[in-house]
Each structure stands twice: as structure tokens, then as C-alpha cells.
Fold:
Amino acid sequence: MATNEDIIQALELTVREGKRTTSLFAEGEWDAKRESGWTPRQVYCHLASTAKIVPQLGAGLLNAPEDADIAAGMDINAMNAQAVGQMENLEPGQIMQAFETNYAELIEYVKGLPDEQLKARRRFLSDSVPIADILASAIGLHGIHHVYEACVRAED
Structure:
């Protein structure tokens, strides 16, 4: 099972590498499509909005019954499109500020989660697993994946 520290380290790595890699972008790079079909602008809007919503959804995750998939009935693609659309017109500096701020708040949220809540088993597009592992995978690895995806230039 992932620990608070494992999750926090993944979140901190996401922020650190996001800041480092975006600081190297050439002119126009924020709007250059990647293999995923998203631009870095869209990726960082997505990451910022995801980090913002996780603490808000935390009570639902913690209070959900173990056998219920908390993602059931969610249209994740529609949620992503809406969240990205709300931020997409911001300047890159504003997007990165939201990204950093929202991740800092998410890190504080994770720091405050007691071990008994992290050990509780829930389902999120998976079998029943500890909440800590949902956070480590669906949030920690998710962010790292997108940061990598945004910095890798598509081949022409």
C-alpha cells in the first residue's frame, strides 16, 4: 500500500518536473499538439483542475461503500473537456500558477489524511483497493504521466 509520503513525493515530482520542463518550451510550444492529441496548455489545465477537485471529492471517496465504484456514472471525458475549457484561454503563466497552487493544496490535503482513511478500501475504475493506492495511481502517476506527455514533442 502507498503511504502518505509516497503520494506526496509523486505530487511534488509532478510539480517540480512540470515547472522544469515547461520552462524549456520554445515559442509556440504551449499550443503544439502532442501524440495524445492534447497540447501542453490543455494538459496543464487538466492537471490543475484535477488537483483542485480531488480534495473536494475526498469526502465522497472516504464515505463511499467499499463495493461501489465511485467513478460509476461519471463521464470523465466530459468532465475533462469542461475543466480544460474553463482554463484554456489563460496565459501559460496563469495556468502554471493554478497548477502549482492546486497541487500545493492537494499536498496539504494528503498530509492531513489519517492512516485509517488511507487503508480503507474503495473502488475507482478498479477492484477494491486501499484509498492510498487510488491516490498514488489516479493522482500521483497520472500527473507524472501527463507531465512527461506534455514535454515530449510529437514527431512530424
User: Anything to note?
Assistant: The chain has one domain: 4-151. The CA atoms of residues 30 and 41 lie 5 Å apart. Strands lie at 121-122, 129-130.
